[in-house]
Write a sequence for this structure.
């Protein structure tokens, strides 16, 4: 099956309709986050799955403040001058995770190019705080590229996360449009270096589709991820968060996502989660069960 590459905007199809965020658990989690002064990527990136995930008491913590130093054209996370590092934030994240009753925790961050280590030390402290407060919990980290710093990557890996995630996001040709300030080769190298530095920690990466890429370009990226040792890949539909971000070039069908899953696993990636509403942290604990004994 071939994926068409017609690059014209289309109305959002029925399979991308989601219910509004509501429910007792949703409101309780929102109060918990606000009360502890924490950010979630669910809110900052305007994730379409927030209603489902929060109602099931799952959320992705976003550390190191709410202002990103990069200006990716697909992302709704606020950009601007970052705030000072709050060194008590790891403990606040751990308290929130304990309150929520979490056993599998995903931690991500904004890009912090203003910090020498890119925020790696705060990631490490957060992993340690979670493990101390919730013995036996599993921690997945979704990290920035740290501008290619092996030292920063080593700090995070040294804290022993259960999964190391870094999103490749899109195909190389679209980096200059969608990921200004980032480099495809640098992201790919980070994933490969993670396996070299700490081969026991599985790596994961995510792709958006619908920005104008071709089927062949997607297959090439999946091949690159496999060659870099990535064991889990997520593929989801890009949805324009607001008029300030890039428009959707086209919407992929559920059948096309199934084809991408098949092709990715055929290329050697052990588990590919592929679907219209799939996001990097969506059902993360279920994704990892395919390769990690939880």
């Amino acid at each position: 099956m071939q994926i068409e590459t017609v690059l014209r905007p289309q109305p959002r199809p029925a399979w991308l309709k989601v219910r509004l965020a509501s429910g007792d658990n949703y409101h309780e989690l929102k109060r918990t986050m606000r009360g502890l002064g924490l950010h979630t990527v669910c809110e900052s990136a305007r994730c379409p799955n927030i209603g489902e995930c929060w109602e099931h008491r799952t959320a992705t913590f976003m550390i190191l403040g709410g202002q990103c130093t990069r200006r990716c054209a697909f992302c709704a996370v606020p950009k601007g001058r970052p705030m000072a590092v709050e060194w008590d934030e790891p403990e606040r994240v751990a308290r929130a995770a304990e309150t929520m009753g979490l056993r599998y925790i995903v931690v991500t961050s904004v890009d912090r190019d203003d910090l020498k280590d890119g925020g790696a030390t705060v990631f490490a402290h957060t992993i340690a705080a979670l493990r101390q407060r919730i013995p036996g919990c599993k921690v997945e980290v979704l990290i920035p590229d740290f501008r290619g710093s092996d030292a920063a990557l080593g700090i995070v890996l040294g804290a022993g996360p259960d999964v190391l995630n870094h999103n490749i996001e899109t195909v190389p040709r679209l980096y200059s449009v969608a990921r200004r300030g980032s480099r495809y080769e640098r992201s790919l190298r980070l994933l490969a270096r993670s396996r070299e530095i700490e081969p026991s920690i599985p790596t994961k990466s995510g792709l958006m589709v619908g920005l104008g890429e071709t089927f062949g370009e997607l297959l090439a990226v999946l091949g690159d991820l496999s060659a870099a040792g990535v064991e889990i890949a997520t593929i989801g539909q890009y949805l324009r968060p607001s008029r300030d971000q890039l428009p959707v070039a086209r919407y992929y069908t559920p059948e096309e996502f199934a084809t991408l899953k098949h092709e990715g696993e055929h290329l050697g990636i052990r588990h590919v989660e592929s679907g219209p509403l799939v996001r990097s942290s969506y059902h993360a604990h279920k994704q990892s069960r395919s390769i990690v004994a939880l």
Confidence is low (pLDDT under 50) at residues 1-7. The chain has one domain: 22-289. The two ends are 35 Å apart (CA to CA). The domain at 22-289 is CATH 3.20.20.70 (TIM Barrel).
